[in-house]
Amino acid sequence: MSGSRVPSNTGPATITLGAPVPTHRSREAFTMFHTKRMLGGAAAFGFACTFAALVPGTASAAPVACTTAPGGADIAALVGGSQCDSSADGASAAAGFGLEGWGSAEAMNNAAALALGLNGGTAVSNGSFGGAPAAIAFGPGAVAQNTAAGLGLSIAVAAPGSTITLTPEGAVCNGAGIAGSFTTLQGCIG
Q1: Calpha distance 134→154 (Å, rounded)
Q2: Does the model's pTM come out above 0.70?
Q3: Could you please report the per-residue DSSP string of the chain?
Q4: Could you list the pLDDT tens digit for every one of the 190 residues in the chain?
Q5: Which of 26, 87, 90, 153 is deepest in the core (most CB within 10 A)?
């Protein structure tokens, strides 16, 4: 007997190594799967390169991080040009991060706040009553302010020289940046 030919009515089929194996996926589905995978990888690589180009390297800068867990003490730190502070009540958490910038976060009444000040940026995030605001400012003169009151996520991102402000009353983008609230559905793109 040669190859992998077995009569169809007798016992289980055997397959020799190197013989094609049928699959449930069609050639089109297989091609589409790998195309999506390559595009996703290219998009992730593009995002990383864009971020690296927009945020200049600060190898000599000393980062500072201030985190206040629920019921924890208020924290403030200053090292060189990096500055941060955070405060929270017994049911909230806040984190401020500075890398040659200033990150200030405050959370009260079941909120969580995050602020990242990078390369000369100032980020201020204040959350209350279940809010989860994030503020990110990168580059000289960038200011991102995010105040959230009420359940939901919100974010404000400011590029160099821009001021991005997000409050429960609305969003204002002066310069390059973006702001948006999933609670109020308000936002802007600068």
Answers
A1: 6
A2: no
A3: --TT---TTSS-----TTS----SS-HHHHHHHHHHHHHHHHHHHHHHHHHHHHS---TTPPPEEEEE-TTPPPEEEEETTEEEEEEE-TT-EEEEEEESSEEEEEEESS-EEEEEEETT-EEEEEEETTEEEEEEEESTT-EEEEEEESSEEEEEEE-TT-EEEEETTEEEEESSEEEEETTT--EEE-
A4: 444 444 445 545 454 455 444 444 555 554 544 444 444 444 444 444 444 444 444 446 789 999 999 989 999 999 999 999 999 999 999 999 999 999 999 999 999 999 999 999 999 999 999 999 999 999 999 999 999 988 899 999 999 999 999 999 999 999 999 999 988 889 999 8
A5: 87
